[in-house]
Amino acid sequence: ADEHFDASFPVNFVVSSNGNVLLAPPGIVKVSCELSMTWFPFDEQMCFIKYGSWTYTGSKLDLHIDDSGLSERHKMDLMYYVPNGEFELLATPADRIASEFNGERYVELFFRVHLKRKTLYYGLNWIIPSILISISNVLGFTMPPECGEKITLPLRPHLIRRTESFAVDDSIEMGIREIIALLNAFKDRLDEEDRDSDLQADWKFMAMVIDRFSLFLFTVLIVATTSLIFLSTPRLFVKSPVY
């Protein structure tokens, strides 16, 4: 329960003509739920709340679910429910379970909360940029060895993505530009030291062979791993249970 809630709040008893006495004290309950991040960001979470008594048997404390006016999908009153920006509330089913212990019957109520994560934000900011960066890295192997952007092309998307993710200031952005300048200077230095045209042609041919092999290998690995990740995600192909 909420520690800031006043448990001594005065509540009236409702006495009926048949002898029933109703006491409905208000209360605020805080519930924590352990999340499974196996299929993030395509995950669904199931949390539950259990109400019952370890002291009073069913003959003294008989609990029932008041689902009058509620649908089969939602057994909780969502009149004051505030939608969440990260999760979508799919269903709130409930069950009444009576179990026997030492010859006595105990009643428990289980309320489940079925949540589904909204993937639009993660798709636009994580998944699609990651796929585009992987494609740009693969395309780098198709560039000729003497091209000046062969080294900086695969690194530039990572640096730009890191800049956007952490919202760096101008000083860090200047540092990124210095790194790119150093890479270009390193390439120019290699070009100056290697002036033998025959040796340079041999190295270009070897680099082209390595590039073609790397292009084939990286393409197969990226397509296979990406397909495996999406195909193994249960939420893309298995529909949520119907309550």
Automatic annotation (TrEMBL):
Keyword Membrane: yes
Location(s), subcellular: Membrane
PROSITE patterns: NEUROTR_ION_CHANNEL
InterPro entries: Neur_chan_lig-bd, Neur_chan_lig-bd_sf, Neur_channel, Neuro-gated_channel_TM_sf, Neuro_actylchol_rec, Neurotrans-gated_channel_TM, Neurotransmitter_ion_chnl_CS
UniProt source species: Teladorsagia circumcincta
Domain Neurotransmitter-gated ion-channel ligand-binding: 2-119
Transmembrane segments annotated in the record for this chain: 120-143, 213-231
Ranges for domain Neurotransmitter-gated ion-channel transmembrane: 171-230
Major location (coarse): membrane
Keyword vocabulary terms for this entry: Membrane, Transmembrane, Transmembrane helix
Membrane-topology annotation of the record: Multi-pass membrane protein
Gene Ontology terms for molecular function: extracellular ligand-gated monoatomic ion channel activity; transmembrane signaling receptor activity
A cellular component annotation (GO) from this entry: membrane
UniProt xrefs under Pfam families: Neur_chan_LBD (PF02931), Neur_chan_memb (PF02932)
Domain of life: Eukaryota
Name of the protein described by the UniProt record: Neurotransmitter-gated ion-channel ligand binding domain protein
Keyword Membrane set for record: yes
